[in-house]
Specification:
With 149 residues, the protein is of the alpha+beta class. The chain has 2 domains: 3-52; 56-143, Roll (PH-domain like). It contains 3 helices and 7 strands; from the N terminus they run ααβββββββα. It has helices at residues 6-25, 30-52, 125-143; strands at residues 55-58, 62-66, 71-75, 79-84, 96-98, 106-110, 117-120. It starts with 5 loop residues before the first helix and ends in a 6-residue tail after the last helix.
């Protein structure tokens, strides 16, 4: 996560946490207060998890996205393209999943699966992308068959 994003993320987290006591002062039923409080807590946990605890592992056949709340595997054979994404990478919509908060993120476009693309932002970007490229190239070379006459 980029350092400057700590300010808006921190502000958002404080606002969300302060909404829980504010719900008790509204004339809402106890069921609505409980459901709203649970939704706020889940949102806070997701933001904290995405912002601070996500890391990436390059295994033999998969890119693994690991955090406190999830463990997802993306096979190298399903990766079609890797490209820097910039400012528009801060937002997720439709079938694009975001696993980072950074302007220096990379978008990995997938061939198939539940998501069409994922966005990652590893700490050592250049080293990580070089290693990812090597793994993808090795996976592709395993699938290539050469016919000799």
């Amino acid at each position: 996560m980029d350092w400057w994003l700590l300010i808006p993320v921190g502000f958002l987290l404080v606002c969300l946490v302060l909404m829980i006591p504010a719900l008790t002062y509204l004339s809402l039923s106890i069921q609505v207060q409980v459901v709203a409080s649970l939704l706020i807590i889940i949102t806070v946990l997701y933001i904290v998890d995405t912002a601070f605890f996500t890391y990436y592992q390059l295994e033999k056949e998969n890119l693994i996205v690991v955090s406190q709340l999830r463990h997802l595997e993306f096979p190298y054979r399903d990766m079609r393209e890797v490209r820097p994404i910039g400012l528009k990478g801060l937002f997720s919509w439709r079938s694009r999943k975001r696993f980072s908060l950074s302007l220096h993120a990379y978008q990995i476009i997938l061939r198939k699966g539940a998501w069409k693309s994922i966005t990652i932002s590893p700490a050592e970007r250049d080293i990580f992308i070089n290693q990812l490229t090597e793994h993808v190239d090795q996976e592709r070379s395993r699938r290539v068959t050469i016919h000799k006459k």
